[in-house]
Write a structure and sequence with these properties.
With 275 residues, the protein is an alpha/beta fold. It has a single domain (15-270), classed as Metal-dependent hydrolases (TIM Barrel), CATH 3.20.20. Helix content is 41%, strand content 17%. It has an eight-stranded parallel beta sheet with strand order 1-2-3-4-5-6-7-8. Strand 2 (46-53), helix 2 (56-68) and strand 3 (72-76) form a beta-alpha-beta unit.
Length: 275
């Protein structure tokens, strides 16, 4: 199957895609220009995007894009799978700190965290060290902490408890069950749900979504990845958020317009204000 999926029906109220990688092109070659991606998203009610940079080139790109496009704000960090590959973590973190403080439109430090799926035992100590440094940076600069957690629920919470979370933190692409959701919520998290919540095998994730208070729910794409049903496996983009939002409203038994309005407001709270 070629080409991007057809646009879904627009949402009744605007929302923010709070985690996107506009600079990343998947191996299948499907891609949109930034201008086209923003236009398609706005046409269906996704009027703002948080662009996340996961390595030094991506972080630089995110900061530049946030300067050029009013619809964008940026997050900058060293992804947990990136940190163990770096020859000089100190130098890389110094640049991340410079970029994080470059302008108000850099709202987040992230995505950082722990990934036990793609990084083996040999790289995990560096991941933890990097995660601790990012937590400290978010607190010192009063930025939102955006956490990547893959197969590392217990370890992520252990580090957060040791370091103390910042005032605002987001569990990106939440992947836990109801019990883990409660533990994150008890620590002040906003939980962000991606297209994975629409997958057939995601019943525990839907249970977590159902119990999350409306004022803590966010939506994201993680584009170009994690495309919602019925387009799973194809290239994701922010204009497909309405598919996820409709599924989320159905799972929660919420009115779609009311949930969209809440998610829009929640994103401003989670990321330090409007833009």
């Amino acid at each position: 199957m070629t080409g991007m999926p057809a646009p879904p029906e627009p949402l009744p109220h605007p929302v923010v895609d709070n985690h996107c990688h506009l600079d990343v092109v998947r191996g299948d070659g499907e891609a949109l220009s930034v201008d086209d991606a923003l236009a398609r998203a706005a046409a269906v009610g996704v009027t703002r995007i948080v662009q996340i940079g996961c390595d030094l080139p991506g972080a630089r790109w995110a900061v530049d894009a946030a300067q050029r496009y009013e619809a964008l704000v940026a997050g900058v960090a060293l992804h947990p799978n990136e940190a163990p590959r770096l020859p000089d973590l100190d130098a890389a973190m110094a640049e991340i700190e410079r970029l994080a403080g470059a302008l108000d439109a850099v709202r987040a430090v992230g995505e950082t965290g722990l990934d036990h799926f793609r990084t083996g035992e040999e790289g995990r100590a560096v991941q933890v060290d990097s995660f601790r440094r990012h937590i400290d940076l978010a607190k010192r600069l009063d930025k939102t902490l955006v956490i990547h957690d893959r197969d590392a629920h217990e370890e992520v919470l252990a580090v957060l408890d040791e370091e103390g979370p910042p005032d605002r933190w987001v569990m990106h692409c939440f992947s836990g069950d109801a019990a883990f959701a409660r533990r994150c919520l008890d620590r002040g998290a906003h939980l962000s749900f991606a297209g994975t919540v629409t997958f057939k095998n995601a019943a525990p994730l839907r249970e977590a979504l159902a119990l999350t208070p409306r004022d803590r729910v966010l939506v994201e794409t993680d584009a170009p990845y994690l495309t919602p049903m019925p387009h799973r496996g194809r290239t994701n983009a922010s204009y497909l958020v309405p598919l996820t939002m409709r599924a989320m409203a159905e799972v929660r038994g919420d009115d779609l317009g009311e949930l969209c309005a809440a998610v829009d407001a929640n994103t401003e709270v989670a990321f330090g204000g409007s833009w």
